[in-house]
Amino acid sequence: MSSFCRPHPRSIKIEAKVCGHYVNSILATNEAKDKGFDEALLLDSDGYLAEGPGANLFFEKDGVLYTPQLGNILPGITRATVLELAEELGLKVKQGLYTLKDLEVADSAFYCGTAAEVIGIESVDAVTFPKAWQDTLGKQLQDAYSKLVRTSEPTLSPTH
Asked: Which position among 13, 17, 92, 147 bears the catalytic label?
């Protein structure tokens, strides 16, 4: 968990990918790496789970996926695709306001984003998720996402 939080939605356009957002993300990532972690997780200005520096957060509990609602997070394209894939797979997804305590009792978690695609999270601070990645809804979505973005459709010949 980062000591930095996502900017308040009234301080900057949260839904925009602008340079100013990246300063916050870089500070959080550097802090995480200094503590021996691969990536940071940020809360929003009200103390609810938000996202990683460059990826949206999902977590699983009892066969249901949870993700922070829009408002204080970037509405990522990969996030939208993961939500569509979850619907196609018949997975139940709840979007809302969740706390660190909700995440700490989760079965598994993952980030999704342009660079990360869909990648499992092993732990948050001292809490390791109990479910093996291969047995998670996140892994199902990782496989579905990978198949979607790596499937090539035949292209039509240009007409002259």
From this structure: 17
